[in-house]
Amino acid sequence: TVSAPLADPNTPPEPSLVPVVDSALRWISLSLLQKPEEPLQIERSSAKQLAACLLYLRDRIGVPRDMTVHAARQLRAHINLFLDSHRLR
User: Fold this and answer.
1) CA–CA gap between residue 70 and residue 76 (Å, rounded)
2) What pTM value is reported for the model?
3) Helix %, strand %, coil % for the chain, to 5?
4) Could you give the percent of the chain with pLDDT greater than 70?
5) Model confidence over 53-75: pLDDT tens digits?
6) CA distance 55 to 89
7) 31-38: which pairs have CB atoms within 8 A and are 24 or more residues apart?
8) What is the DSSP letter of 17?
């Protein structure tokens, strides 16, 4: 058993959210390199779940396990930028 069910690596992803989360992470990755031209089009039906996924990721980036402290700060900031610019929180 896993003591933290949300962190269970054997839990399959929700198939309907995979494309939405993938697009959001691509937008966030692009925003780390350059200013994206326009916001991502997000269906309102998946917006709440997308926000929950991104907040979960943002809050659980491990330093130094996953990346350096500076890289983690930038990734967290760009996740917040995505959430704010898309009015998801």
Assistant:
1) 10
2) 0.87
3) 60, 0, 40
4) 98
5) 999 999 998 888 889 999 999 99
6) 10
7) 31/78, 31/81, 31/82, 32/74, 32/75, 32/78
8) G
CA distance 41 to 59: 24
Structure-block tokens of residue 22: 């993938």
| Residue (of 36, 28, 18) closest to 76 by Cα position | 28
Q: What per-residue confidence (pLDDT) applies to 80?
A: 97
Kindly indicate the confidence band of residue 3, based on its pLDDT and cuts at 50, 70 and 90: confident
Phi-psi region of 87 (alpha: psi -120 to 50; beta: other; left: phi over 0): left
User: Whole-angstrom Cα distance, residue 22 to residue 75?
Assistant: 15
Nearest one of 63, 58, 62 to 28, comparing CA atoms: 58
